[in-house]
Amino acid sequence: MAVTSGINHVVVTTPDLDRMVQFYEEAFDAENVFESARTDDDPRMAIIDVGGTGRYVKVVEIEHYALRDHYDESTRPIERLGLAVETLDQLRALRDRIGALGLAVSDIERLPTQWILSMPDPDGYLVQISAHVR
């Protein structure tokens, strides 16, 4: 059995922090629980609570940050972000919410162990939301 209790946070980078925070707030009703300004040593960043359970997306603005020079479209820091809901009904309601915002969202797909839908975030990263089959 693993000695850890799960994932605390995932870091995504963006050239526009405000746009990315707004995306998570509107699409997922997530809460921006912490934000810091850019300093000479650190980029501007926000911590978004995506579930009310201490699971976070840390969004780092890299427009003026040295790490940005190390990435291009083919070497993004993450391949996709996976979020979860408890039930298929919640997944359907989330799909309807995202669609009502005018955002692109896939149909719900049944995989062997879960139901899943996909959408791009404002920077084109793949975001998947799943509900495990019970």
TrEMBL record:
<dbReference type="InterPro" id="IPR037523">
    <property type="entry name" value="VOC_core"/>
</dbReference>
<protein>
    <submittedName>
        <fullName>VOC family protein</fullName>
    </submittedName>
</protein>
<dbReference type="Pfam" id="PF00903">
    <property type="entry name" value="Glyoxalase"/>
</dbReference>
<dbReference type="InterPro" id="IPR029068">
    <property type="entry name" value="Glyas_Bleomycin-R_OHBP_Dase"/>
</dbReference>
<feature type="domain" description="VOC">
    <location>
        <begin position="6"/>
        <end position="132"/>
    </location>
</feature>
<dbReference type="InterPro" id="IPR004360">
    <property type="entry name" value="Glyas_Fos-R_dOase_dom"/>
</dbReference>
